[in-house]
Amino acid sequence: MWKNVCLQCHGPAGKGDGPKGPMVGAADLGAPAVQGLTDQQLAQSIQNGKGKMPAYPKLPPVFITGLVGKVRSFKAP
Question: Can you give the pTM of this predicted structure?
Answer without folding.
Answer: 0.91
